[in-house]
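Sample A.
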Amino acid sequence: MSNFLNNQNWRYATKKFDATKKISTEDLNTLKEAIRMSSSSYGLQPYKVIIVENPELRAQLQPAAWGQLQIVEASHLFVFANDTNLGDDAIDEYLNTISITRETPIEALAGYGDFMKSKISTLEPAIKNVWASKQTYLALGNLLNAAAELKIDVTPMEGFVPAQVNEILGLDKLHLNASLIATVGYRHEEDATQFYKKVRKSQEDLFITL
């Protein structure tokens, strides 16, 4: 656990990436697997993760992300996009995956499926989309922790215009909405932010024990 806490103290929101350093295929696959294994409500994972490597596409995205340099300087750009068309079909597909993975008769999962549908499919679209977007933050947490263990920097970003990102990446056609962005790579030696002491609330201020 001490290594985990040391990694948390090491990581920070990198402001300047070293554009010459690229994440290896092996490490990238590790990060992808960490995201894939992330916790999610009901296990549904109502999102996609778009990994943008194309430099021209990233240059188009930069203005939509308030001009932030990390968008073009980082090794990789991850766009977490929640499903905007989540309904019974997605739940049925998930149940089928459970059935195959666990070698369980699909009929035995009918009750669980009906329960999920009663809680999710009945939600107003706006509320459902907010719920789905929150799931992307759980996946981001796994990315942050796995990357820190590999000494790879990640900067989570909410500073962008979702509608513009959706248009550039064609997400609307896929019934997806950009929920958050994470730039991933290696800190530049000139990034002064890496030397700042981490500022967090004390345990006394943060926790309430009842």
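Sample B.
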Amino acid sequence: MSTYLPTLKQLQYLVALREYGHFGRAAEACFVTQSTLSAGLRELESLIGITLVERTRRVVRFTPLGEKITDKAIRVLREAEELSGMARAAGKPLSGELRMGVIPTIAPFLLPRILPRIRNDWPELKLYLREETSRSACESLHHGQVDCVLLALPYACGDVEAAALFEDRLFVAFPHNERTDLPELVSADAIDESRLLLLEDGHCLKDHALAACNRPELRAEAAMLGTSLHTLVQMVDNGLGVTLLPEMALKAGILDGTAIEARPLDADNPARRIALVWRKGSPREKDFQLLADVLRDVSPVHAPQRAVA
């Protein structure tokens, strides 16, 4: 067998470059300098005798063969990760390194409850966190950059297993005393579409909120301005409109110090489902199920669900 084989590190650089389309951002994702990443890719191209990437000042463009080799590299890295996972799974449960993706509408509200419990119950686990939108988190999962993702369902994340954790109900948030006529349960029909503030595209909570309201015109009329839930809260507190907030954010105190009132949304499906997802067939499934048990126990909202979705 030839001793001149690409290294896993070189393949990681190649996959990261295609994902980010930028040498600097790819290097940052790989925790190396841009010069290190560039040198690694040049070595890879020299090793196999093929140009994989066309470099210009403005554009990073993969050659047709470079695209095919990158697709193969993703599969090789996934197999290598599963090999490592098999070894970890044979050792102590929830020990060693575990990389978890978390979406922005969950991370600031649930992680403060999770992390102290994990440190206490599983001191040998080194949990590395990566906050990304749902789409990016699922891509990271299938590229082997994370082992599991804390996600809100429904969301099409590909060929994954999912452990359902709990339901996170949606609330209508509005300036105090602005709508004194609203009932304790706010119907979606009572929401003024011209004043509805939602997260910008890329956040699955926007889609969950619109689906729960079941009013197609909201997608066209709503002002999708917020980059985060905290930004939306500030807008509402300044009288710019109303928004929809998940219960976990309310339990975490996102409205503290504001003059905002929040009431439950009255709808057929007024909640998103929080779940832990991982690649189907992962050798660390038992670890993920143990982690899911911890997440259920620290749930800030509704009674835990123990079924696997």
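B remarks: The two ends are 44 Å apart (CA to CA). Residues 64-89 form the longest helix (26 residues).
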